[in-house]
Specification:
By secondary structure, the protein is an alpha/beta fold. The protein has six helices and three strands, in the order αααβαβαβα. The chain has a three-stranded parallel β-sheet, with helices on both faces. Helix 4 links the parallel strand 1 and strand 2. Helix 4 packs parallel to helix 5.
């Protein structure tokens, strides 16, 4: 599995958790590459979209979140740490939006990548909730034990 695949799996699991509890789920993405479905989604619209999405967007996270109105809570699944991502999340928080950052840690994957500690520290200092996801550990347990992941037993 790749970093991106883990990020998509985490997004699907979090969205399923919210939908099963009656919360509306919206997707914000780079619509120039693959238009995200508009309005509240169901699993019937979400899963086919997530099955087709690819890591080929050209717009920054900041551009994407500023292009469309956001709800009271944004769950950002981040497959690669960067200062730009931290700035986008901090901007959302400054606008009064609650943010949950789900950071897939590249250095835990066989192909390697940068460590996520600087981004983790920045968002946590800003009062943003953070869940770190590492390769090789059951995703369900990493998502706080509250989000069941299809195909994995929950503790």
């Amino acid at each position: 599995s790749t970093l991106f695949e883990w990020a998509v799996k985490a997004a699907a699991s979090l969205a399923t958790y919210a939908l099963e509890r009656g919360y509306p789920v919206h997707v914000l993405a780079d619509d120039e590459i693959l238009a995200a479905p508009r309005g509240p989604l169901s699993t019937e619209t979400l899963y086919p979209y997530l099955a087709r999405v690819q890591p080929t967007g050209t717009r920054s996270l900041a551009d994407v979140v500023h292009a469309r109105p956001v709800q009271a809570l944004v769950v950002a699944v981040l497959p690669w740490p960067s200062a730009e991502l931290a700035e986008a999340l901090l901007s959302l928080r400054a606008r009064g939006v609650d943010v949950l950052a789900v950071l897939v840690e590249p250095d835990s994957f066989p192909a390697g990548g940068p460590g996520a500690d600087p981004l983790s520290e920045t968002v946590q200092r800003a009062g943003i909730d953070l869940i770190s996801v590492r390769f090789g550990e059951p995703l369900a347990g990493q998502l706080g034990g509250i989000v069941p992941v299809r195909g994995e037993a929950t503790p």
